[in-house]
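User: You have something folded?
Assistant:
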Amino acid sequence: MELRMIATLRRINRAIALVVGAGLLCCAAFVLTDIIMRQIGTSLGGTEEIAGYAMALATSWGMAFTLLELGHVRIDLLRSRAGSFGRALFDVFSMIVMSGVIVMIAIKAWPVVAHSLKNGSTANTPLETPLALVQLPWFAGWVWFAFMSCLVTLAALSLLLKRRYSETESFAGAFAEAETLQ
């Protein structure tokens, strides 16, 4: 059950990554168009602001994808020297810590969005972008990452309790070891 859930979450995150990647490509095309237009004496304007928004959205939504692709940085000096049970314990511990941090980030991000919604805040730029338009999907990305992190933690904990230690490595282990295990 745990591994099926992880496989489903991977498929969802890959679809999200494709959408985010397409958005980044569109943003790059927009910036490139603006650069070319500047050479002929005109400009679209606002490319720096829009690129910044795109990066914030890509970061918040990309974190969950990176989690299941084992792309987050881990210092695994002790883990690499442990047996299967020890590695599973380190994996569960690291996921508990990560989940705690990410849940806190998601909780702390909400007041930023709520303040913008309450005040009708706009960017202090010529575009005067309503900040809630950018902050709501940014916040949703952090909530998705927190949700994903908690699900991965529960799956790893479940496998640990069932004594299926080596199975946690495929989704909660360290990337460098995952390559050598295959």
About this structure: The chain has one domain: 2-181. The helical segments are 2-39, 47-68, 84-119, 131-161, 169-172, 175-181.
